[in-house]
């Protein structure tokens, strides 16, 4: 890959509101991932059923996908900060319900406890349908346009930091503090996120070209913009299909418990490994952004993700598996930086919420629906064959897209960001 050295690696961090934003984003990521890991392990411990793990992704994806386009509309027409605060309050309430269940329900109520977990995951999906587009569309207003690429790298780096600390802590928290102790920490982190928002000012809604616009027209406008802007459509589609078929995160409890036999602590290491790889790569991308020949770099990164997933599926050694997951995160981080920069540069201010929500549908489909696909595939094809099939599909799809998008190979995203 070809990289260009940036002039000031710390540009975006010189803006106080952006610092508060990425700090809150890190804590939010940590909290949700700690909760995700401990709930997945709890459910697998109760059921030993791969499909039960897949249903976790489905429980979050259905409400999120159903609402996120409306969330994007509201983000473009309402105070983004207030939307984030309201959504976060719902997520905190859900975590409190889980804590109550963990401390008050007896072992004979195990089935009810499991259904409550699915309900709270559903509730979080609803809240994220409004939180995610509001947060994504607020981000570009915190820094000037010429800092977008640097901000995308730092934002992704902090997100990946949360992705390391959250899962890495989760396995040990579950092993030594139990479900209730872990949930107390989750609630504390979410309250800290709420405090970070007080350091960010509310932003006025950008003036709209159409004064009286129906919500359906607004949603259609955002969808049409994505589908007619080839680089945005291809970038988010590649992410969708690579993670949808090649992602293995949802079934890691099976590898930790039954294949590699490393328990909850090992699950934490496996779950954190992709994020460690991502952060290491992100640190280099801060100094050497992959924006010259961005499309070629994106294709190579997705192909590398597929190959690393293939190695993980073939591995029976714990540390080789950790290394393979490390490289899935490293390659994915290049994809994330390019995709986020493209979305910032090629999206008009008045459409950021709706475009972010369309991107959110793609991302949620790849992550949460990918988790469901992983559980179903593992149930019917076997855990290891499902990983190998997913890696093969990823490599096939990136090859097809490479042939269909040759005109994007010469695009210089860095020059576009300076225009």
Automatic annotation (TrEMBL):
It is a multi-pass membrane protein. Gene3D superfamilies: MFS general substrate transporter like domains. Pfam families: MFS_3. InterPro entries: MFS_dom (IPR020846), MFS_trans_sf (IPR036259), TM_effector (IPR010290). Coiled coil: none annotated. The chain crosses the membrane at residues 21-44, 50-71, 83-103, 115-138, 158-177, 183-200, 231-256, 268-288, 295-312, 380-403. Residues 1-409 form the Major facilitator superfamily (MFS) profile domain. It is found in: Cell membrane. Keywords: Cell membrane, Membrane, Transmembrane, Transmembrane helix, Transport. The keyword Transmembrane helix applies. It comes from the Bacteria. PROSITE patterns: MFS (PS50850). This is MFS transporter. It comes from Aquirufa echingensis.
């Amino acid at each position: 890959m070809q990289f260009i050295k940036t002039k000031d690696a710390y540009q975006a961090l010189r803006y106080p509101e952006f610092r508060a934003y990425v700090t809150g984003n890190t804590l939010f990521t940590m909290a949700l991932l700690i909760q995700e890991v401990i709930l997945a392990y709890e459910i697998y411990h109760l059921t030993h059923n791969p499909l039960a793990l897949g249903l976790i992704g489905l429980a979050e994806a259905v409400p999120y996908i159903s609402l996120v386009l409306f969330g994007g509309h509201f983000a473009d027409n309402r105070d983004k900060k207030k939307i984030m605060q309201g959504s976060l309050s719902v997520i905190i309430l859900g975590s409190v319900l889980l804590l109550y269940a963990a401390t008050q329900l007896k072992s004979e109520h195990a089935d009810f406890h499991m259904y409550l977990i699915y309900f709270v995951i559903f509730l979080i999906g609803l809240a994220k349908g409004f939180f995610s587009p509001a947060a994504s569309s607020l981000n570009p207003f915190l820094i000037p346009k010429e800092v977008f690429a640097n901000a995308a790298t730092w934002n992704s780096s902090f997100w990946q930091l949360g992705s390391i600390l959250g899962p890495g802590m989760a396995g040990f928290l579950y092993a030594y503090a139990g479900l209730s102790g872990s949930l107390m920490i989750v609630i504390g982190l979410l309250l800290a996120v709420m405090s970070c928002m007080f350091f960010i000012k509310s932003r006025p809604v950008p003036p709209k070209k159409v004064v009286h616009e129906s919500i359906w027209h607004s949603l259609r406008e955002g969808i049409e913009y994505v589908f007619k802007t080839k680089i945005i459509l291809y970038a988010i589609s590649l992410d969708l299909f690579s993670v949808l078929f090649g992602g293995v995160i949802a079934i890691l409890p099976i590898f930790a418990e039954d294949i590699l036999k490393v328990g909850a602590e090992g699950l934490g290491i496996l779950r954190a490994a992709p994020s460690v790889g991502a952060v290491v790569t992100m640190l280099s991308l801060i100094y050497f952004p992959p924006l010259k020949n961005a499309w070629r770099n994106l294709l190579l990164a997705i192909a590398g993700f597929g190959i690393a997933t293939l190695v993980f599926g073939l591995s029976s050694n714990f540390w080789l598996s950790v290394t393979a997951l490390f490289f899935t995160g490293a390659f994915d981080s290049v994809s994330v930086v390019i995709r986020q920069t493209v979305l910032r540069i090629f999206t008009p201010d008045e459409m950021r919420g709706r475009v972010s929500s369309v991107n959110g549908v793609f991302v949620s489909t790849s992550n949460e629906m990918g988790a469901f696909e992983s559980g179903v595939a593992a149930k019917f094809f076997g855990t290891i064959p499902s990983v190998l099939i997913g890696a093969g599909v990823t490599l096939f799809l990136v090859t097809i897209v490479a042939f269909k998008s040759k005109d994007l190979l010469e695009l210089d995203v860095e020059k576009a960001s300076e225009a």
